[in-house]
Amino acid sequence: MKTKKVFTLFMSAIMMVSLLSACGGSAAESENAGQGGSGGAEQDTITALLPPVSANYQARFSDMEKEFNALYPHLTLKIEPASWEDMTQKLDTQVNAGSPPDIAWVGSTAISKYAALDVLLDLNPVLSDEVKADYDEVAMKYFQLGDAQYGLPAYLAIHSIGGNKKFLEEAGVDWKNVQQNGWTYDEFREAINNGVVKSDSGETSRYGFVFATSGVTSKDYLSIMAKSAGLPEYFDEDLKFTYTSKNFLGLLEAIRQMIDDGSMPKELSSIDAGKRWNMFLTGQTMITGKGLASFENSARLNNEKIKANDGSAVADSIEAEYIVLPVPTFNGADYVPTSVVDGYVALRGKKEPSEEHVKNIGLAIHFLSSGSIAANYSNELFLSPITESARNSEVLEEYPRNEDNVKADEAMMAKAVPARTDIPTDKAAEAIKIETEVIVPKLQALLANEISPQEMYDAVKAAAIKSFGEDGVVAD
What we know:
Blueprint: H1 9-22, H2 27-35, E1 44-50, H3 61-71, E2 75-81, H4 87-96, E3 103-107, H5 111-116, H6 129-133, H7 137-141, E4 144-145, E5 148-149, E6 151-164, H8 165-170, H9 175-181, H10 185-194, E7 197-198, E8 204-211, H11 220-227, H12 246-260, H13 273-281, E9 285-291, H14 295-308, E10 322-325, E11 338-346, H15 355-368, H16 371-380, H17 388-391, H18 403-413, H19 425-447, H20 453-468
Parallel strand pairs: 1-2, 1-3, 8-9
Antiparallel strand pairs: 3-11, 4-5, 6-9, 6-10, 6-11, 7-8
Helix pairs in contact: 1-3, 12-20, 19-20
């Protein structure tokens, strides 16, 4: 494994100063250009609430605070760590108390929630064109609502699926071709059927496909597959609700079909994220989902533990080379990947922040989401950076990668589409209500074979018509 030299704090600071200089002169000049505080350099503290984004992200908080202060001696960045489990609860508690942090980590889908609470700050006035140009346009739009820029993205990831290389080849899957050109549902169905292995007694010892559908992943399976089934959003360009389309019924039929084929477990509705990954590592499935690029590294690390024979590997696991794969397309639709864009939002409490403080928040939020900081957490997550400054920054360590997986990730990211910023808040809220009250529970019933695809489709259609009217839904 090739390791690049570790850059000192001083060098990191020099790199950031260089970035700011490239964006319009010296650091002080950049502030006066609308990216940060004024030349008055009043002392100020910016607070941030951040989760363990990558393996070493939180361990670097102290260095990040010092580096920011080295760049801006009049500013103090104070970072509060949070676990993934309590991140949202902590943030909501602080928001409800009227004293949120200046910066917080959120998924882009939560922006409408906090915008409705009127606690987000529009950063457009304090971000220069040069700073905005550092970010890829698709990712940037995920932190916009209407004309407002409520934060900056940290990364763009694609929710894919992943296969065991050995098992894929045994099943006759040309996985390199699939990585670059995708596959239809019929091709996928045949592949996962070929991937099933049964014991002499007829029991299934390996499934073709397993997807986590329980707990926090209860809606993932349907929403991820729907993107490439002609249903990329809940609303079409005319703002009509799309899940009343025949494409939705076709997708539901396919989801049930894969279980009835025996390619997926009958107990799919009870499989959570931990169970599905355990099934992959122990050879109980050929393909698993949902997948992220970082799963390649997780599988690699478990393989190393198996080779070390020190008892630290997952119990009963086998060596498995993880192969990134796109989800199949349904109903003759085009492939549309599910993009996951997380990042940093700017918040305000009961007291309106000064213009100077908002400028300083803009400085800090750009610092956290670009350059060497973004380069390192993206690298640890096996993601391609979404800022030019991060792409041009050195990383502390390089990890071995499957080059075909890298190319597959790039091919999927190239098809990522910008977030929709035209959907009215009230319509979006009503769609989420239908999702929570009808779609998710009905999907669980469908997976458990308690209702048919037609019955689920009819229930969702009835709820949609009740919410949006006959003219507010797709009728094809």
